[in-house]
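Lab notebook: predicted structure, single chain.

Context: the supervisor wants predicted structures on file for every construct in the current expression panel, including those that have not yet been purified. This is the next one on the list. No modifications to the sequence; it matches the entry in the shared construct table.
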Amino acid sequence: MKDFKSLSYTKIKLEREALSEIKKAIVVFHYAEKIKSNLILTFSLLDVLGGMRDEEISGAEKLLVAYFNALIREVNIAANASEVQGFQDVSAKLDEAVEQTRQHNYANAMKLVSEAISITTTNGNKAAETLKEKDLI
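Prediction complete. Output recorded below exactly as produced.
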């Protein structure tokens, strides 16, 4: 009877660990997809900003910086919810991109956003693989 209880406890513990892994993968996948979409949009906005006339740039930059800051908050929520270092790296890239944008270095800002897209995609792919292994996607 003692061995049966020990075996049952071990099985329950393994099932909980598997569910925890799945839950984390779902959270990471969700945030990665959401953030990736916003990063692609941000890249497009930076591209438009580079083609604007001087009198348009000031207001457009302010709006884009506000958008960056909202996105950084979302990335920080993802980092806290998932405990994935990659989201913290994305947040750092976006902080740098904000500074580059304020300095009118849009090409550098676009490069940083591209790097953030790459990091986010990697995080999302890892989570997707976990979910595929469990036949959840």
